[in-house]
Amino acid sequence: MEGHRLIDQALSTNTEIEEVWITNKSNKSSIGEKLLHKIDNKNIPWSITPDKIIRQISDSLNDQGIIALSPIPIYKKYNKPPLQSIYLDGVSDPGNMGTILRTAAWFGIKSVFCSSDCVDPFNSKVVRSAMGAHYYFSHFDSVLYEKLFSDLSKNTIKIVGSDISGQSIDTLDLSDSLGWCLVLGNESHGISLPVRNFITNMVTIPGTENIESLNVSVAGGILLHALTSLKVVTN
Amino acid sequence: MEGHRLIDQALSTNTEIEEVWITNKSNKSSIGEKLLHKIDNKNIPWSITPDKIIRQISDSLNDQGIIALSPIPIYKKYNKPPLQSIYLDGVSDPGNMGTILRTAAWFGIKSVFCSSDCVDPFNSKVVRSAMGAHYYFSHFDSVLYEKLFSDLSKNTIKIVGSDISGQSIDTLDLSDSLGWCLVLGNESHGISLPVRNFITNMVTIPGTENIESLNVSVAGGILLHALTSLKVVTN
User: Fold this and answer.
1) pLDDT tens digits, one per residue of B150-198
2) A51, B125, B206, B219: which has the highest count of C-beta atoms within 10 A?
């Protein structure tokens, strides 16, 4: 994990951190000092490290002079379909993937599934944009969509996709279902054809026609805000 | 402007394009061929250009082998306060700025104001993420917030800010006002203190407390979706 803000967020959510490396300059900054105080309080080992080394490890062009090592969390194996979940179908930009994860955690979604052609969800740019969301999920996995979607359908859980052709999200009614799975597609091509066949409710976000589409992570945020407010059978 | 998608979007919105440069490889791709067909139809001059030159001009590490030259649009001078607008207060990440502009255009917002400490809104990364939104706005300018906000207040237009301390956006009632201006703050520090004093309605997006905050462009999208659906006196 790189950067003050991400490491600070990780510390406040009891994310396991094994070790921290910090440059002399970052150590002497007020924000660095505050962070090291928290790191000391948790008995996490840290050391001053030459700028050159941090720069070599860092994936960022403008590193902030602080890097932490944290194990990849162990997630529960998928066995039964969750009432609220997200399926990412070929999301390829690491910034978008990370932002979607951050937003999912904000809205309390604990299950995120990815198609195998998504960007690596543990890519350091994804981790940076996700702001610690990786440590919030119960399920975070690549699954075969056929299995997942057929389980969801059997359990009266709607599969909601986003596409310009859909009905307005403002009129969506899920009161006859137990929950939902939101499917978000690739930045250029949208939801892939085989996955599209499983969508039970295609929705769109009403807008002007002056611009082709919304960014996928913005659309995801608007849809999650709407879906988490909707009445389903269980609430 | 760089990349197939942005240039395609620009062509479909009648954005003025003066000239296009394309690599031999991009010219021979099916997506490049389709674009050049549109470019020819509009009588825009184009030429095959060595990869090396495109790479030098490009601001992207993975350029797509196509660059277009387009003049910065001429916007109307601010004179009276618009009924719907956005004020960006120190938004510093070019990707966030561009995504907010793209979202604003999607929701039909024609007036965007920026504080002087925002990232340059014509930075090529901003232009890339904005996907042609720059050509949609009527007002797009740096203005003195004191003048803007005092004009808005005099005209019963609410100044809505986003902050964790605010009331839920789901309960916001603007039925006694003529319109609104959405203020979005800096990625780390939020809305600056002097601007904060002018906010008439501080709102938040309800979520769990597992993550510190939402990304500013995602929050902006959720708030714009909510605000553009709200009843005000004029509708």
Assistant:
1) 999 999 999 999 988 899 999 999 999 999 999 999 998 999 999 999 9
2) B219
Domains and CATH numbers, chain B: 4-69 (no CATH), 84-229 (3.40.1280.10)
* Chain A neighbors of B222, CB-CB under 8 A: 221-222, 225
Contact check, Cβ <8 Å, B106/A207:
yes
Give pLDDT tens digits for B89-109: 999 999 999 999 999 999 999
ipTM: 0.91
Question: If you measure CA to CA, which chain A residue comes closest to B102?
Answer: A214
C-alpha–C-alpha distance, residues A150 and A148, integer Å: 6
Q: Which amino acid appears at position B141 of this protein?
A: D
**pLDDT, position B23:** 92
The confidence score (pLDDT) of residue A164 equals: 85
A116-173 pLDDT, tens digit per residue, is 999 999 998 999 999 889 989 999 988 889 999 999 999 999 999 998 889 999 999 9
Through-space distance between the first and last CA atoms of chain B, rounded to whole angstroms: 37
Inter-chain touch B218–A99, beta carbons under 8 Å: yes
CA distances A144 to A89, A193, A206, Å, are 11, 15, 31
B46's tokens:
């184009």
Q: How far apart are CA A191 and CA A67, in angstroms?
A: 36
DSSP H helical ranges for chain A? 4-12, 24-28, 30-41, 51-57, 94-106, 124-130, 145-154, 193-196, 216-229
Distance from CA of B99 to the nearest CA of A (A): 7
Q: What's the gap between Cα A10 and its chain centre? A: 15
A221 touches chain B (CB under 8 A): yes
